[in-house]
Every structure is written in structure tokens, then in C-alpha cells.
Specification:
elongated; four-stranded antiparallel sheet; Adenine-n6-DNA-methyltransferase TaqI, Chain A, domain 2; 398 residues; 30% helix
Length: 398
């Protein structure tokens, strides 16, 4: 192994920089004052938000041929790698392989490899260096990355056939990640639609009645939230006062830490009061809700707690904000909300149905997390040469 500024690599791997193996280009934006530069929408036109770390096979925005001709936008070739020069959050420094011809604006740069560098391998190499790339300019503001800096990015080069094998292995894992993401997305859509029906139509009803909220099952009741629950304030617990322990500390967006004491006996329901206002969380064990939350105390014996959790999730409490300036869940507005109440036995049946879907989603999420951890481990081993791949002559590689 030999030492480089980004770590040890095998002796037979080359160490260089991007500019020696890639043409690095960027694009531009046609004048938004001229309608014919964007219509008809003829040419894909990429912005930094399109770059999400996976292969780009379609673009959501377009410009016209005239827009391309009358701006700094230019056509980027397939089998290149794009990088976000600017963007919100984690966008800047993120890369994606480009699988279609596209133009781009000035917030995107494109690296077009020569014949000695596999474009998919380049993407994974730069993904591994994401923190290094971010540290070049710091995390403050949107400025920083430019073509000159990109050309100086460090580059490691295994033999081309080894690059291709590494690219194939990691791409196969990414394909599984994207497939699992899609499965989870579809399951969540199914769950939302099912919840909408279960909390308005119930299970197997044949008799309905007309109410001020529309047609509902005959034996159901309408109650205001104030008649079935109390929204109790959580209690502040600064990080410096938390002690190591098994008790979840719950914020407006769910579990944020752990402590050695609990404030509320579980299982229980927590609702975001500030921050992720209106978000509903189910906590299985004893817990400590902090002061940006409410926790639920049920005052109606005909209510199943887990059913109430699902029902509150279905109410979209996020809309009940105190103000646009300081968003927060307005307790009085929440109390005034109406809720449809089935009989207890039906509540329990609804809970079983939704718990089954949640279990499927949880299993898929665990599988997704394992895939991401597998990818992370493979990148660390394959892209540093700690583990060398074997090349068979009859393999079809990227």
C-alpha cells in the first residue's frame, strides 16, 4: 500500500486529480424574461436539486432549442458525472451519474471522463469523498465549489477493469436501495388511502346516517377532541442534564435522545407543539416528552389508545398552527376538532389492520437500512483497495 492525502491505496493504483482525466464543464440559465427560451420544452435542463446521489434518467425541467442557443447552457453527454456546485442542505457536493443527454444551469458542473476512467466508478469515488469536498469550502452559504476546485479534486485509479467491477457491484446495491425505497413509498401511499377509508367508513357497515360531517356508519359518534383527551405539556430536559439510560427523550419529531428517568408511563402518544408542529408519535415504553411537545391523556374510557394514535395521525394536525411567524400547535384549535368514534371492538380491529401494514413497512425499512450499511461498508473496502475484486473474463461490466 502507498500513502496519499486521502489515505492508503494499493501500489498498482494511480493517484492523480480529476482535471487529468475529465473535461469539467458547466452551464447557464436562459433569460427568464423571454418565454420562447423555455417553450416549447425541448431540451432537459438540470438544476442542482435533480442531483440526489443516484443515476439520473430523467429531468423535470426543460428549455427550448432557442434557450440553449442564446445562453451559456450546453449539452452534457451521457455517461458523465454531474456535481452540485450550490444548493440547500446536503445538495452541494452531491454527485450523480448522468444517463441521458441534458443541459444544465450554472449551479451544476459536469465531469466527462476520458477512456481511462469509468464514470460510475468516478461517482462512487466522489461520493466517498463527500465530507472532504464539503470541507474544501465549508458548510456556510451557497457559494464555494467551482470548476477550478473540481479539477483539483483527488482521484484514485485502479486498472479500468477493476473500476468497472467495483462500479457494477455498487450499482447493484444502489438498484436494490431504490427498489426498496419505492416499495416503502407505495406501502405508505396504500396506508394513507386505507386510513382515510377506515376513519370515515369503518369495516363492513351497511347502515349509515347523515351528519354535519357527511355520511358515517350508523353506530358511530361524533365527538370533539376536548371531550376525549387532554393535551398535557411536556417538560424541558436540556442535553446537559440528561443521564445515560434506556428512557426515550421525545421531541416534536419523535425520539431525540435517551435518559435514565421517565416523565410519562408508556405506551403513549406525543404530538409536536413547536418545530415539527402537529406530528404524532407513538412511544411503546415509558418516556420523557420535552417542552416542545404535548403528550396525550385519555379521559374517555371508550377510546383505544393505539386507535387514537392512528386517528390523530389521520387528522393532519399540522394545519393548526398558532401563527406563520412562530409556528406552533394551537391547543384550543386542536380541542375544537371533531373526530368520528367507532365502537371499541371496531377500533381494535382497525388497529390490527394498520399494525400489520406498519410491520411490513418496518421490515422493509430495516432491509433498506441494512442495504445502506452494506453499501457504506463496500465503498470503504472497495474504493480504498482494502478488498480487491476478482475479474472474470466473461463478465459483463458497466
Amino acid at each position: 500500500m502507498k500513502k496519499t492525502k486521502i489515505g492508503l491505496i494499493p501500489e498498482d493504483w494511480e493517484f492523480s486529480n480529476i482535471g487529468n482525466y475529465c473535461d469539467v464543464i458547466t452551464g447557464g440559465t436562459p433569460s427568464t424574461k423571454i418565454e420562447e427560451y423555455f417553450n416549447p420544452p425541448e431540451i432537459p435542463w438540470m438544476r442542482s436539486g435533480e442531483i440526489k446521489g443516484y443515476k439520473i434518467k430523467s429531468i423535470s425541467t426543460f428549455i427550448s432549442k432557442k434557450g440553449l442557443e442564446n445562453s451559456a447552457a450546453r449539452i452534457l453527454p451521457r455517461k458523465s458525472v454531474v456535481i452540485a456546485l450550490a444548493g440547500q442542505g446536503k445538495t452541494r457536493g452531491t454527485t450523480s451519474p448522468l444517463e441521458i443527454k441534458s443541459s444544465c444551469n450554472q449551479s451544476v458542473a459536469c465531469m466527462v471522463p476520458n477512456g481511462k476512467l469509468n464514470y460510475i466508478f468516478l461517482h462512487y469515488h466522489l461520493s466517498r469523498l463527500y465530507k472532504y469536498i464539503r470541507n474544501i469550502t465549508g458548510d456556510v452559504g451557497r457559494e464555494g465549489l467551482n470548476l477550478k476546485l473540481i479539477r483539483k479534486f483527488p482521484l484514485i485509479l485502479p486498472p479500468l477493469n477493476e473500476q468497472q467491477k467495483i462500479a457494477t457491484i455498487l450499482s447493484n446495491v444502489d438498484d436494490l436501495i431504490l427498489q426498496t425505497d419505492k416499495i416503502i413509498e407505495n406501502l405508505q401511499i396504500l396506508k394513507r388511502g386505507l386510513m382515510q377509508r377506515l376513519f370515515t367508513e369503518g369495516l363492513g357497515h351497511t347502515e349509515f346516517k347523515q351528519t354535519r360531517l357527511g355520511k358515517i356508519p350508523k353506530e358511530w359518534e361524533i365527538k370533539k377532541l376536548e371531550n376525549i383527551l387532554i393535551l398535557e405539556y411536556g417538560k424541558g430536559l436540556p442535553k446537559r442534564k440528561r443521564q445515560n439510560g434506556p428512557i426515550p427523550v421525545v421531541g416534536s419529531n419523535g425520539i431525540i435522545d435517551y435518559h435514565n428517568e421517565h416523565l410519562v408511563n408508556g405506551p403513549g402518544i406525543v404530538i409536536g407543539r413547536k418545530g415539527s408542529m402537529g406530528k404524532v408519535s407513538w412511544i411503546n415504553e415509558n418516556f420523557w416528552p420535552i417542552d416542545t411537545t404535548y403528550f396525550i391523556k385519555i379521559i374517555d374510557n371508550s377510546i383505544d389508545k393505539k386507535w387514537l394514535y392512528y386517528a390523530l395521525t389521520n387528522l393532519n394536525l399540522e394545519r393548526l398552527s398558532l401563527s406563520d411567524v412562530v409556528p406552533g400547535l394551537n391547543r384550543e384549535y386542536a380541542y375544537s376538532r371533531n373526530i368520528l368514534i367507532p365502537k371499541l371492538y371496531e377500533q381494535e380491529q382497525i388497529v390490527k389492520i394498520l399494525e400489520n401494514i406498519d410491520k411490513i413497512i418496518e421490515n422493509e425499512q430495516n432491509y433498506l437500512n441494512n442495504l445502506k450499511n452494506t453499501k457504506k461498508g463496500l465503498m470503504q473496502e472497495l474504493l480504498t483497495g482494502k478488498k480487491r475484486v476478482k475479474i472474470n473474463q466473461d463478465e459483463v461490466l458497466l
